[in-house]
Amino acid sequence: MLGVLARLAAGLGASIVPQGGGALIVDEKERRHLPVELQGNAVVIAPTEGALQAAFDAR
Q1: Which of 32, 28, 22 is nearest to 10 (CA)?
Q2: Which of 10, 13, 34, 47 has its CA 20 to 30 Å from the CA of residue 2?
Q3: Low-confidence residues of the chain, pLDDT below 70?
Q4: Interacting residues of 51 by C-beta distance below 8 A, sequence separation 6+
Q5: How much is the pLDDT for 59?
Q6: What element of type H or E holds 25?
């Protein structure tokens, strides 16, 4: 399911914001669309299941 979520975010140019964590984006250019308070801590990840899982595990 995480792979689908990552690919969906990439396809839509969306961010993933886990509860209690910073935003996850799949392209640096998406950072500018985030609210100012989320821009500084946003992390760019590859749009893959493994990358999304690793980002969740790191939090």
Answers
A1: 28
A2: 34
A3: none
A4: 6, 45
A5: 80
A6: strand 24-25
Residues in the chain, overall count:
59
Give the largest Cα separation in the chain, rounded: 29
Q: CA-CA distances (angstroms) from residue 41 to 10, 20, 38, 47, 50?
A: 19, 12, 6, 18, 20
pTM as predicted: 0.89
Q: Which residue matches tokens 């989320």?
A: 38
Say if residues 6 and 51 touch (Cβ distance below 8 Å): yes
Sequence-distant (6+) residues with CB within 8 A of 54 are 45
C-alpha pair distances (Å), 4 with each of 1, 10, 11, 40, 45: 5, 10, 10, 26, 14
